[in-house]
Amino acid sequence: MEGHKSHIFVTVGSKEKGQYLIDTYDDFITCVDLILNTLWSDYMDSNFKCSEIGGKIVDLSITFKKLQKLFQQISNAIENGNLNLIPITEYSNLNIKEAIEYK
Q1: Which residues pair with 35 in a beta bridge?
Q2: pLDDT value for 65
Q3: SS3 15
Q4: Which of 45, 51, 70, 102 is the 20 to 30 Å CA partner of 87?
Q5: Which DSSP string corresponds to 32-101?
Q6: pLDDT at 82 over 90
Q7: 39-51, pLDDT tens digit by residue?
């Protein structure tokens, strides 16, 4: 495409799709320095294959899994009566002064 200059990084599900990109766009980058991973562990191999030697992978899927497990534990504890909710006092945006001064 003429007039556009930027790098686009993609993953593909097959060698045929990868070959299509090479054939169509003629400039294919095979390795990257930083990967923000959102794939489950079953699919991590594809990240390692496209990572540059010394490249970094930030695994966001583990963070999500840990948070999901934590939220489930909290939810279960509330439902079972093992964790009591703290009292909550709500104020409308018209009562901001009272909210700030609340003790």
Answers
A1: 57
A2: 78
A3: helix
A4: 70
A5: EEEEEE-S-GGGTHHHHHHEEEEEEEEEHHHHHHHHHHHHHHHHHHHHTTSSPPPP-----GGGHHHHHH
A6: yes
A7: 777 777 877 777 7
> Which residue, 5, 61, 57, 6, is CA-closest to 31?
57
CA dihedral 21, 25, 27, 30 (to 10 degrees): -10
Q: 36, 61 in Cβ contact below 8 A?
A: no
Cα–Cα distances in angstroms (integers) from residue 79 to residues 15, 19, 73, 83, in the given order: 49, 53, 10, 8
Given a cut of 70, whether residue 89 has pLDDT beyond it is yes
Distance, in Å, from the CA atom of 40 to the CA atom of 60, rounded to the nearest integer, reads 9
Residue tagged 């497990």 (tokens):
69
Residue 49's CB is within 10 A of a number of other CB atoms, namely 10
DSSP designation for 13 = S
